[in-house]
Design brief:
Layout lengths: L6 H5 L4 H19 L15 E5 L23 H6 L6 H10 L6 E5 L9 H10 L4 E5 L4 H10 L4 E5 L4 H8 L3 H19 L5 E7 L8 H7 L7 E5 L6 H15 L19 H12 L6 E5 L7 H6 L6 E2 L3 H4 E4 L4 E3 L10 E2 L5 H5 L2 H12 L12 H6 L1 E2 L4
Parallel strand pairs: 1-2, 1-9, 2-3, 3-4, 4-5, 5-6, 6-7
Antiparallel strand pairs: 8-12, 9-10, 10-11
């Protein structure tokens, strides 16, 4: 199965500069894995490669498996609406981009639904004008509305979350969501033809659960019509009661931090997945030419897929490199290493410079503690999506 870095050569025929910038980002993260893991007394900005901007907690969908707004999501109801009152204004993000312009990390914009951030188009343009790659992850339901501007401004890449063909997808994400995504793709492709543009490159991200894994071939076939560059199959972030208890106790003892966000991934949507069958389905998809790349995260050996879904404490990837080359900025300006589990706050971009935060005491304390853990990964993070992308592959998996 193909690795996520296989997208780089695919981009060569679309936009040479974009391929170079994306390749540079992957290379820098790869080098970080091989370098010594420093803590105090080191300028960690030397290795900084990727920044997530979680622009808003708001979303117009209620996907059942979502750790934010799903069945067990931690931003349900009025919680998300109240949190949205604290979002960073555009000028705050511009200041951050200015500060990082010499480093030029890859930017990944998400939410919630990023199109609900009022100045999203202006922010994307500002980031790209400062020489960085910018990718936007969206549920795709608002693409049609912004298609003309997206193509005109030549956004680099757009990831659209889509989990199955129409009926199954709508059962998971909401009635009518599939049709809105389809209209969005049609509008983007129409504008590309009209304006004579090749950007943005478009991709689909599918989270594999017990609800949709048997229907994946139908989605793969349908995506042939979308003019995609890649389709990523995310095997999913999952946890359980025992892992949660161990993780919470560890983080409280060693980092004096109360953990609650990981509860949103204790959904049970891994239970009932036949790992052997799931791998056979994914292997067949990988062996079929749909006109775009099919990428599974993580790419596993066939006999290990069942373990991935049913032995959640087993290390598939370890040696988390995130604290040495990445960071997440939440909607209120809080900086954390982890995108999904952001209780341990390093600082806030509205109060300090990013460099001060990234090289600060709290950041280095986190780095020290993770190096003490088995596999250099915290107990609750063994199914973390970021680590599936960037962690080291455990022998045999």
């Amino acid at each position: 199965m193909k690795h996520n870095a296989s997208i780089v050569p695919k981009l060569l025929g679309i936009k040479l500069k974009l391929s170079y910038l994306m390749g540079r980002g992957f290379a820098r993260m790869g080098l970080t894995r091989m370098k010594k893991r420093h803590t105090y007394g080191y300028d960690h900005m030397k290795n900084f490669s990727l920044i997530y901007l979680k622009l808003t907690p708001l979303c117009n969908l209620r996907c059942v498996m979502c750790g934010q707004r799903g069945d067990k999501g931690i931003l349900k109801g009025e919680v998300g609406a109240e949190a949205a009152k604290t979002i960073v204004p555009l000028e705050g993000y511009k200041k951050l981009v200015d500060e990082l312009s010499s480093v030029k990390p890859v930017y990944y914009l998400w939410g919630g639904e990023p199109f609900l951030y009022p100045q999203l188009p202006e922010l994307v343009k500002y980031i790209q004008d400062h020489g960085s790659v910018c990718s936007v992850n969206t549920n795709g339901t608002l693409l049609e509305k912004y298609a003309e501007q997206i193509v005109r401004d030549e956004w680099h890449s757009v990831f659209v979350s889509l989990d199955a063909f129409q009926d199954v997808n709508d059962a998971m994400r909401g009635k009518g969501s599939y049709e809105k995504v389809m209209k969005g793709f049609e509008a983007i492709n129409r504008e590309k033809k009209k304006q004579g543009k090749k950007l943005p490159v478009m991709g689909v991200v599918t989270t594999v659960t017990k609800l949709n894994y048997e229907a994946l071939p139908d989605l793969a076939e349908a995506c042939k019509e979308f003019n995609l560059v890649w389709h990523i199959y995310n095997l999913g972030t999952y946890t359980n009661d025992q892992i949660l208890a161990t993780h919470k106790a560890y983080m409280k003892e060693h980092l004096d931090t109360d953990i609650y966000m990981l509860d949103g991934y204790n959904t049970g949507y891994n239970e009932g997945v036949d790992g052997v069958k799931a791998h056979e389905i994914l292997q067949k998809i990988h062996n079929t030419d749909y006109g775009y790349l099919s990428i599974t995260v993580p790419a596993l050996n066939p006999e290990k897929t069942h373990e991935y879904y049913h032995q959640l404490d087993t290390h598939v990837r370890d040696n988390c490199i995130v604290p040495w080359c990445q960071a997440n900025v939440s909607y209120n300006g809080d900086v954390t290493f982890c995108a999904d589990y952001n209780e341990y706050v390093l600082g806030n971009i509205q109060q300090q410079s990013f460099k001060e935060i990234y090289n600060g005491d709290k950041a280095n304390k986190f780095r020290e503690e993770i190096l003490k853990c088995d596999g250099h990964i915290f107990p609750g993070c063994v199914r973390c999506y970021q680590n599936m992308l960037f962690g080291a592959k455990v022998k045999g998996y």
